Amino acid sequence: MTEQLTGLASDRALLGRTSTAERVSDILRSRIAEGYFAPGTRLSEDGIGGALGVSRNTLREAFRLLTHERLLVHELNRGVFVRVLTVEDVQDIYRTRGLVERAVVRGLGDPPYALDRMTEAVEEGRRAVRDGDWNGLGTANIHFHRELVALAGSERTDELMRSVFAELRLAFHVVDDPRALHEPYLTRNQQILAALRTGDRPRAETLLEAYLHDSLTRMVEVYHRRVNPEP
Q1: ∠ at Cα 71 (41, 29), nearest 5°?
Q2: For the whole model, what pTM was predicted?
Q3: Residues 136 and 220 in one domain
Q4: Where does 67-201 show beta strands of DSSP type E?
């Protein structure tokens, strides 16, 4: 937890002069999405509040907001914990991703599209592969799909998917072989990006649909093996 609190202290400047629960929840959500807090981690009010320089009441309101987003759970007389997802949660996450991400691609207007940030996410993934940083590659994959959603230019959709992608990161923590899960999808991200560069939206959507189907299948296999083993 010490390392996580050090990282949070660096986020303190993001709060500005008015420390609001919404801003605190944004920071904690981002930290969960980046993998700083693993599922089952107990969040210390004193430690996090001190690192961010916010009051106990502000922090508790932020916890409440993230509990509503299904990222945290409050256990009576024990405290607040990062949520541990079930296989049903994972299936629902991918169902939501399919509905939103495919709709974004389908609804794009005429090319060219603003693909710079998706390109940056692919480069981030390549660097992670060179460094052998497989969890970092998972983060880069999330960044790629977050930027794909951003092509819709909708703040509401971005807000919805921020929580979904943060939940997805919680699912990734269960994976015992992050390289096997994430490495194949760097190439598939590149293929989706290439299709969008040429303005071929139907191909991009087809590639995306296959991507999400195969990724979900892999995640469900992992969950059945490591979280809910069948008799």
Answers
A1: 90
A2: 0.82
A3: yes
A4: 72-75, 79-82
Are 172 and 181 in contact, with CB atoms under 8 Å apart?
Answer: yes
Residue 231 lies in a domain: no
Torsion on CA atoms 94, 96, 97, 101, rounded to nearest 10: 150
Q: What's the pLDDT tens digit per position in 78-120?
A: 999 999 999 999 999 999 999 999 999 999 999 999 999 999 9
3-state secondary structure (DSSP) of residue 43: strand
Query: What is the C-alpha to C-alpha distance for residues 39 and 14, in angstroms, rounded to an integer?
Result: 25
Query: Positive or negative CA dihedral for 166, 167, 173, 178?
Result: negative
Express each pLDDT in 112-152 by its tens digit.
999 999 999 999 999 999 999 999 999 999 999 999 999 99
For residue 74, the enclosing domain spans 2-82
